[in-house]
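Retry 2 of 3 after timeout on previous attempt. Resubmitting structure tokens to design endpoint.
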């Protein structure tokens, strides 16, 4: 059975996220979800469970914050997909999380469809970056460029962007939800350090990957 650990000091959010992931599991089967209200409790849960497939952690928590916890998680759970899920809109928080080994950064006010699609992207080997990060200075995007190569699926979508196809048609062609396609497109933008489709295609051609 797949296992998820959610670390957040807000009970309502923990329970809501847990319920959503059980109802809309990123895997064919329903996962086993563990809840922790702080970093210390999370580490105790990890001590009792050898392996987690997905870990979602807040940043601002009493005691040890999420970024300090992240540094420990990448060592004790090296095979887990670790995603920070926070209300923070700080580009520095996002950049720091990625530098420390997080595979994604989801804003708490994201729609459930975006959260699920972002998790699916990370589990497929990608990195999810929220739209606000795409507006950050180029030196921030360089962090993503080094650590987040495009997946095979994203290369397919990039080729469709070259053909001028819109998200809805791409989703229909690849049998994906439109929300999932949007997540992939945003990731392509962040990896290439661009802000729109035209720039993405031009940059990909210039780099020789398209």
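Retry 2 succeeded. Sequence:
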């Amino acid at each position: 059975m797949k296992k998820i650990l959610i670390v957040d000091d807000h009970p309502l959010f923990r329970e809501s996220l847990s319920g959503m992931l059980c109802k809309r599991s990123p895997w064919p089967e329903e996962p086993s979800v563990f809840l922790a209200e702080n970093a210390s409790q999370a580490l105790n849960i990890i001590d009792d469970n050898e392996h987690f497939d997905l870990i979602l952690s807040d940043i601002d928590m009493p005691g040890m914050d999420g970024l300090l916890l992240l540094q420990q998680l990448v060592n004790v759970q090296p095979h887990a997909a670790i995603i920070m899920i926070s209300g923070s809109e700080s580009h520095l928080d996002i950049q720091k999380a990625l530098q420390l080994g997080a595979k994604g950064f989801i804003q708490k006010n994201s729609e459930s469809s975006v959260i699920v699609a972002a998790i699916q992207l990370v589990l497929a080997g990608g990195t999810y970056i929220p739209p606000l990060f795409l507006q950050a200075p180029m030196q921030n995007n360089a962090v993503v460029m080094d650590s987040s190569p495009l997946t095979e699926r994203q290369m397919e979508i990039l080729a469709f962007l070259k053909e001028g196809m819109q998200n809805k048609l791409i989703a229909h062609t690849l049998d994906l939800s439109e929300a999932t396609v949007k997540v992939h497109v945003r990731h392509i933008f962040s990896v290439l350090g661009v802000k729109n489709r035209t720039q993405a295609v031009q940059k990909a051609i210039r780099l020789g990957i398209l």
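Attempt log closed. The mean pLDDT is 86.
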